[in-house]
Amino acid sequence: MHTIAVIGTGKIGEVLLSGLLRAGWPADRLLATTRRPERGAELKERYGVEIVDNDTAIARADVLAVAVKPQDAEVLMADLGPRIPADKLVVSLCAGLPTSFFAKWLPAGTPVVRVMTNTPALVDEAMTAISAGAHATGDHLSLAEEMFRPLGRTIRVPESQQDAVTALSGSGPAYFYYLVEAMTDAGILLGLPRQVAHDLIVQTAIGSAIMLRDSGEHPVKLREAVTSPAGTTISAIRELEDHRVRAALLAALEAARDRAREIADQTG
């Protein structure tokens, strides 16, 4: 079993760390680095993993999972990159940063895999997209899948699609929370207590998601099955169409995709 070091164990790094432990990855095969000593002490107490400095992580780990914020990646890689041996696998969890960004700091031929996961990893229901850099092989992708499969589902995509993935599933949970928030408020407007409205919409969302995943039906068919002629549902959908909700979603995801590209250009 490979030794994995999480470099910069913030929120997303902790998600990976905790998921690996829940999946049975031995704690003695996991290392973590942190910027602040108190954060390291917190992680050590919570998970029992060894907190090390970056040099120790490079020396002992087979896989370096870089989980810092994108704006902090350049300073980190300028310092660490030249010291990372070319036989290590670098896995990037930095939103918006292409594998070419890491390659320019690393020794020639170092394999890099780009990963975009999302916060449902906290409940082992993540959607994680994995892309190979120029020197990453099928074995490297398989190892990345082994790391992230305990957190939910994984999918391989060309790196050219990763900005779209960031917009759709990386940021996607926030869109659903926003929708639940709005529908809960609507329930209150209609006279329901807040908790009742919340419970109704959350369970409806869970059930609908399971049907989408397991039925194999197109979402249009599932929607039509609820939409009776001259009924309540079609009246609601007409209002959604009149308010251009579909167009707003298209524009919102394009804006998220464009922002991912801007982050890469600014860091570039």
UniProtKB/TrEMBL annotation:
Residues 159-262 form the Pyrroline-5-carboxylate reductase dimerisation domain. It is found in: Cytoplasm. Keywords: Amino-acid biosynthesis, Cytoplasm, NADP, Oxidoreductase, Proline biosynthesis. Residues 3-96 form the Pyrroline-5-carboxylate reductase catalytic N-terminal domain. It holds the Pfam family P5CR_dimer. SUPFAM superfamilies: 6-phosphogluconate dehydrogenase C-terminal domain-like, NAD(P)-binding Rossmann-fold domains. GO terms for molecular function: pyrroline-5-carboxylate reductase activity. Its EC number is 1.5.1.2. Its main location: cytoplasm. NCBIfam families: proC. Catalyzes the reduction of 1-pyrroline-5-carboxylate (PCA) to L-proline. Belongs to the pyrroline-5-carboxylate reductase family. This is Pyrroline-5-carboxylate reductase. It comes from Planosporangium thailandense.
